[in-house]
Amino acid sequence: MKVTRIAYSTGLNAGKYAALREQARRLGRVRSEVWQRYGSVAGVGSGLRDRQVRDRWLADGTHMRFGVLANAWKETVRDAMADIAANLASAKVEVRRASGPRINDPAERKRMLAALAADRWAADPFLARQMRKHWKRGRNRTDHQIVVRADKYNTVTDGRGRLWLAVPGLERRRMVRIPLSTAVAPTGTLRLILRRGRVEVHYQIDASQLRSSQRPCGDRAVGVDKGYAEALTDSDGTHHGTGLGEMLTAESDRLKERNRRRAKLRSIANTAARRGDHAKAHRIKANNLGTVKRDRQAARHRARVRTEIFTAVHRVVDKAATVVAEDLTRSFAGRKKLGKNINRRLAAWTKGVTAEALTNVSERRGSALVHVNAAYTSQACHRCGRLGRRGGDRLHCTLCGVVWQADVNAAINILQRAGDPDIALHTPYHKVKQILQDRTDRHRTRLPVQDSSPAIADRRANHPNRSTTSKE
Hints:
The two termini are 44 Å apart. The chain is an alpha+beta fold. Helix 7 (244-274) runs antiparallel to helix 9 (292-317). The protein has 14 helices and 15 strands. The protein has 4 domains: 13-134, no CATH class; 149-209, no CATH class; 217-370, no CATH class; 389-411 and 418-462, no CATH class.
């Protein structure tokens, strides 16, 4: 497994940055040319690969228009063709999802899927029509990246311990030396991304080299429930990533207030421009409506959120050989109308990062990740299966008479779903509800007749039901 690491330039002078920026701009034209010719149904129908595109451009002289070294534009062509292939693969997923229910014949469905996988869909009228519907022509907007092959750069450490990275420039045998803020030399193919006067050096390493990958995993199965206030709650009753909710709420409220002030300033600038005071409008836009500080703060917030979530997942894997979780890649349509503040905060909820962390950490540390159907796991009592009443972070079971901590109850239900013979991953939610209700009815018929005598009532009053997971 490969993971991406990023090294940053430090103290890079303006002349070097300008030279790299010009090279990236020219390579952006290469990307645009590739997308223009091959980023559509007609272009992919030609069946050309990146090496064939390179040979064709060398033969007809297309490469002479860009003004960059040969290896630079060849690597850019390869990278752009890989992006087109990834875009095509995502369109195939949509075609399979849209076409599957329409074809009842298993043999025809198998033939269609085989043609789609082998890129023979252009000869099939139905598949070609579906691909034109679901695959939109892409356009390149990337003009700030440089791809450097592994044998085209070198690193050296000076006498002060600073690491320098030398990459090819626009002229032959003229390397651009970049000081890095790390002592670890990057390896493999590099991707240089130029942002706000700084160079980001992206490279990949084996996950086994990471210190966290060498931590052993646990020895049992643990179910986890994702949340907003806490990143994860496991079936043992432990909450992980308890600072996530406060972090997301504080950032959401800060953005609300800042955007309100920015909107007011933008309105003043627009009013000044309409009155002809363009100098005032320019001053406001230049000094008060910039994006450098905003982007820097957003990057720091994303980094803090990722750290909180990945730390929570690592703590779960510390005791779990098998992690049972709901499928976080599926979209869920909410039925309940919420307030504007709640909707705004939930819009920033990073369940995609949680899904990435579960997959990444489980694979790196050798634990198994099992996805289950999470329908009604937060509403059903894990002891009897009856649908209870949810109130905040409590679930009231009307059959057992127990009040459960809702997130812990959901995590236990998710763990039990891993061995459920009736509820599969893609079982519709309405069928899941019917299964749970049938089980509750069968469970109720086996219960003894409840005695309402005073003695029984007094005994129940002296020994009230309490949640086994509550610490109160």
